[in-house]
Specification:
The complex is a heterodimer of chains A (about 120) and B (about 110). Chain A has about 120 residues and is mainly β. Helix content of chain A is about 0%, strand content about 55%. In chain A, a hairpin with a 4-residue loop joins β8 and β9. Chain A is globular. In chain B, about 0% of the residues lie in helices and about 55% in strands. Chain B starts with a strand and ends with a strand. The chains are: A mainly beta (about 120), B mainly beta (about 110). The interface between A and B is medium-sized, with 25 and 24 residues.
Chain lengths: ~120, ~110
């Protein structure tokens, strides 16, 4: 069975601090895809990044960076120099190509960035 | 232009009523989904359609009936609404079923059953 665990329910930081959101996934499939989505207070769900299981290259995009490690089944997300606008719920998600191509979401981590 | 649009944005109704939520995507995607987000923000897939064909039907009460008249539309009809149906319902689409294509979500429909 597939599972995504985001152990951090809520994180509170002060603006300009760096913050890392943890994601641990479980699957027996050798091919799978990982995603991060952001849900700001306005409620929409916004795609941030994706990773294939065969691509462990980490990525930096502006203040965002992602650390994918198959050895620990983790796909962590770091925001550098956080800003108030980063306040949102962040979801990690997993898709495998069996069982109907479901995208399974973690429970989300609510990030509060205080000015 | 809105890529995935859902109507209505808010829906307040009483127990026992029947209601529908409509979803349309103009991205040319083949696959559409309904997700339910509960009060704790947990997102759970309900249904998935690929080219009008039902692909995923999670353990959802049969009071929920999706309908896809064409691949650009996926509507959700709910019969005999219950208090526990109160949630935000998100429609989403993707180019295909699998692979690394991300989901494109609508803005959600907040359903409140009183």
């Amino acid at each position: 069975a597939q599972k995504v665990t985001q152990a951090q329910t809520e994180i509170s930081v002060v603006e300009k601090e760096d913050v890392t959101l943890d994601c641990v996934y479980e699957t027996r499939d050798t091919t799978y895809y990982l995603f991060w989505y952001k849900q700001p207070p306005s409620g929409e769900l916004v795609f941030l990044i994706r990773r294939n299981s065969f691509d462990e290259q980490n990525e930096i995009s502006g203040r965002y960076s992602w650390n994918f490690q198959k050895s620990t089944s983790s796909f962590n997300f770091t925001i550098t120099a956080s800003q108030v606008v980063d306040s949102a719920v962040y979801f990690c998600a997993l898709r495998v190509n069996t069982g109907g191509f479901k995208t399974i979401f973690g429970a989300g981590t609510r990030l509060f960035v205080k000015a | 232009d809105t890529a995935v649009s859902q109507t209505p944005k808010y829906l307040v109704t009483q127990m026992g009523n029947d209601k529908s939520i409509k979803c349309e995507q103009n991205l040319g995607h083949d696959t559409m989904y309904w997700y339910k987000q509960d009060s704790k923000k947990f997102l759970k897939i309900m249904f998935s359609y690929n080219n009008k064909e039902l692909i995923i039907n999670e353990t959802v009460p049969n009071r929920f009936s999706p309908k896809s008249p064409d691949k650009a539309h996926l509507n959700l009809h709910i019969n005999s609404l219950e208090l526990g149906d109160s949630a935000v319902y998100f429609c989403a689409s993707s180019p295909g079923q699998g692979g690394n294509s991300p989901l494109h979500f609508g803005n959600g429909t907040r359903l409140t059953v009183t």
